[in-house]
Amino acid sequence: MTYRLFDHTADFGMEIFGKDLKDLFCNAQYALFDQITELASIKNENKKEIKVIGADLPDLMINWLRELLYLWNGKELLVNKTEVIYIKDNEMLAVVYYVSYDPDQHLIKKEIKAVTYHQIEVLKISSGYRARVIFDL
Amino acid sequence: MEITQIDNYLWELAKTGNMNVPGYIYTTDAMLEDIKKEETFKQVANVAALPGILKGSYAMPDIHWGYGFPIGGVAAFDWETGIISPGGVGYDINCGVRLAATSLTEKDIKHHLESIANALYNNIPSGVGSKGSIKLSDKEEKEVLRDGSKWAVKQGLGSNLDILHTEDHGCMEAADPDFVSDKALERGRKQLGTLGSGNHFLEIGRVDKIYSKDAANVFGLFEGQITIMLHSGSRGLGYQVCDDFLLIMSRESQKLGIKLPDRQLVCAMIHSELGMKYFKAMACAANYAWANRQILMHNAGEILMQALRISPRDLQMRLVYDVCHNIAKKEQHVVDGEKKWVCVHRKGATRAFPPGHISVPEKYRAIGQPILIPGDMGTESYVLVGTEKAMELTFGSTCHGAGRVMSRNQALKESKGRSIARELEDKGILVRWTGKSTLAEEMPEAYKDVSKVVDVVDGAGISKKVAKIKPMVVVKG
């Protein structure tokens, strides 16, 4: 399992899993865009590098998701794949593959306003890592 | 946590641990049980621990679990020694409600509901990523951020009376677009004049009941009258302003020297450079929201006239009022017998100023400020009026709506196999919507009963019921 949703009255939360940190951050991108659109309908047309910093792992996770969400909300790009080049507790570099949104081709399932810091968690578990993130809808 | 009942509608959360003030929760015995299931009390207590908070951390009866601050929360901070928090305002800065009255009555529109619904749905941009018909240059966008509603009226989209009947005249003077990021500006350029998605709506309704004849007369409302109500905010621009400052404040939060129980509570001293930058950027987003609602309401009036083939003289649309319910404001209040400047955060709460207050429009000053409380799409909405008691007890604040009781996911599950549109139609409500799951997520049972919420604020005296409005046509994003 890469991720699952959990309930929060006003908003919604995601529990994301990964066998290591790289996998966790790739799956976070997958989870976010899987909620926004039908990922299967998106081809990798373009790629770009994204560098993110954070005070610690939870902060890095929030900043990674907020950068990705801005690509959609601000630039109308749909991201369907990530390769994490390197990742440390407070810094990461990744390449994301994306396509420009085309209303005739892409279905948008929901609006996600923002990634919140509320009850953010990134934890080491026996099978790797688990993150919990709450989004504002 | 220690909770004591003070009267029929008020509970006190004792000041314990690092709380600077007690918590005060306006609710009823029955509603309290629902609130207890969530972490809402903890959130009320967390807010009470922030520096400079005055008198109490307040929860309105529509309170529900938010992130950081609860939704339905009110907190006032000393303007000299207190903090300002983007999480205490929310992402949708100046999300708010606007109500216009018309001279039409039910008989004038009851045979045209279908064409009205279609015309509004087809011509008011709504839903995820929708774009407005207004294309802004960089310079024009900054004018919108500085001038708010006035900008729209200058473009011919409304009248000066609209400005007089909007909270703060549709413009927070503190706005300075220099503190709004390029990302936020980019998101705002294409969305002016759009409704948004989720719980945002445009509604044609009918005044179903008048509770206070005097106040209704002053507000120009009568039974059977057709009204237009809309609920929208600052769109992507506001979300981005909030997010930008959460990021900066989280990096500088150690400067405050307090340990925050939740990172979403990040804040800055109001008087710090960062606090002021946020206040000025937030004011820009608030102005954008007012311009947006001004444009939406003007367009709705035009569309209604076209659909009914009537003239402005037949419609006689006039703005009753426009309130914001996600905001931080500089206001003067009496604290311990002394007049003080404070920063009132209302996150899912509405200003409720009393008769005689200078900020209430002249026409309404003898009665008090109109308050607009939308319910879910299947029940009703309310017009209330502000009171002196709200000034004494809640920094001039009251509730903002029904408040969710079901998560969106839960609502999706509960509505499986049902046609929400058909159920509403059976009640005489025509609905049009954009998002695939919007109707299910927004179904009436997903919300608290707005009438019960309003009965609490009326019973507690922090606002008084004036009129009830029933929906006839609803457009959702």
What does this molecule look like?
The complex is a heterodimer of chains A (137) and B (477). Chain A has 137 residues and is of the alpha+beta class. Chain A has one domain (3-136): Archease domain (Archease, Possible Chaperone, Chain: A, domain 1), CATH 3.55.10. In chain A, 24% of the residues lie in helices and 42% in strands. Chain A is built from 2 helices and 8 strands, in the order ββαβαβββββ. In chain A, strands 1, 2, 6, 7 and 8 form a 5-stranded antiparallel sheet that branches. In chain A, strands 3-5-4 form a 3-stranded antiparallel sheet, covered by helices on one side. In chain A, α1 (21-36) packs parallel to α2. Chain A is globular, with a radius of gyration of 14 Å. The model of chain A has no long low-confidence stretch (mean pLDDT 93). Chain B is of the alpha+beta class. Chain B has one domain (3-476): tRNA-splicing ligase RtcB (Alpha-Beta Complex). In chain B, 34% of the residues lie in helices and 27% in strands. Chain B is built from 17 helices and 19 strands. In chain B, a hairpin with a 2-residue loop joins β12 and β13. The longest helix of chain B is centred in the middle third of the chain and has 36 residues, at 273-308. In chain B, 59% of the residues are buried. Classes of the chains: A alpha+beta (137), B alpha+beta (477). At the A-B interface, α2 and β6 of A face β4, α8, α10 and α14 of B.
